[in-house]
Amino acid sequence: MKGRDAKPHIGIFGRRNTGKSSLINSLTEQEVAIVSDIPGTTTDPVKKSIEIFGIGPAIIIDTAGMDDFGELGKKRVGKTKETIKKIDLGILLITEGQFGDPEKDMIAEFDKWAVPYVLVQNKADLLSDTARILDFLPEKLNKKTVSYSTVDSRNKEELIQLLIKHIPETAYMSTSLVGDIINPGELVLLITPIDSEAPDGRLILPQVQAIRDILDNDAIAVVAQQGEMLSLLEKLQPLPSLVITDSQVFKQVAEAVPENIPMTSFSTVLAKYKGDFENYLKGTPFLSKLKEGDKVLILESCTHQVSCDDIGRFKIPEWLDKFSGNKLEYEVVSGLDNVPGKITDYSMVIQCGGCMITRKQLINRLKPAIDVGIPVSNYGMTIAYMEGIFDRAIAPFKNK
Fold first, then answer.
1. What is the pTM of this model?
2. Cα dihedral angle (70, 72, 73, 75), rounded to 10 degrees?
3. Mean pLDDT of the chain
4. H-only helix segments in 7-155
């Protein structure tokens, strides 16, 4: 089943004036990218929502030339490399028989972040036989190459098939949020407090996603605020097979919901669905080992208006200081911005649910910390641990 919200993220890379923007227009059969003969027309990564015949809806990212130079050029190349962490597939363009250090450097980045890629020899209509570099590439690269022309679209079907072959299933195939822990016809109770962080007149995205997923699995979703929870539990027949709550009222809900009813949080559901759940399980207990002055990195994956009710910027730091009995330092990074300083400056990383980003982006967000052994957790699992209900919150997903 194709994920309803997931789209493959495809990045296009190459030296300046290799035809990256022209390739986007050719693939989409639309003028969606600015094309110019002047090298360096694209200065920053530009994200476009497109549809490619044979692939379907996708997010394609046009990047600056990887051979840019000068002080500003180095920054553009840095931005281009940062893009690799956020994509599911890379397209590396080469022209005029050029395959050297810039291309090898980019391939090394693809390998570092475990991003599959294909090589496209562009401007095939202008190539002489001696410029057919694809014939001379190492065998491991030759298996993922195609010669293409954005002028006459020669080999377009071959290119589309190559992209389809190398786009990982995880880019647009997704498991269900709760489909493996509920059955058709069962009742799921969702506790959704309405506070200052909730959009006016709407629910937050994880709540909407959970409701839709429950309905897609032919189960019944009942939604209430925590104030109505007790009376609702007395009236509901049959009793809920699962209770999912906002993490901020975890303790109150855990005290009210009988132990025989499985209970978790929206953030913990997302941790299992798209986070690094196994490393969260290992890392969360480190909360008990944080010491005075330790620095905690909190990763938000979206940008939003900050309020005093903000879970990541205010509530978790306040609760964690109290839980640890120490005064800790906190750094909050929103969106997919760079982390200040070195990752080794931090004693622990706490990631939000990640409802606004892809699993690939979230996993690569955490990778630098995991690679050097820094423990990681997520909002819901952190709160559950501090409230003493960690085992109960993760129980529905054990051995799933």
1. 0.72
2. 130
3. 85
4. 20-28, 70-83, 101-112, 139-142
Q: Once rounded to an integer, what is the mean pLDDT over residues 307-311?
A: 61
List Cβ neighbours of 284 (8 Å cut-off, separation of 6 or more): 375, 377, 381, 382, 385, 390
> What whole-number distance in Å separates Cα of residue 303 and Cα of residue 85?
19
Q: Which one-letter amino acid corresponds to residue 309?
A: D
Tokens for 90, please give them: 């890379």
How far is residue 272's CA from residue 369's CA, in Å, rounded to a whole number? 19
Domains of the chain: 9-171 (3.40.50.300), 187-269 (3.40.50.11420), 279-391 (3.40.50.11410)
> How many Cα atoms sit within 13 Å of 341 on the Cβ side?
12
Question: Are 286 and 349 a contacting pair, CB within 8 Å?
Answer: no
CA distances in angstroms from 2 to 92, 174, 273, 308, 389, listed in the order given = 26, 7, 15, 38, 34
Q: Please determine, for residue 239, whether its predicted confidence score (pLDDT) is greater than 50.
A: yes
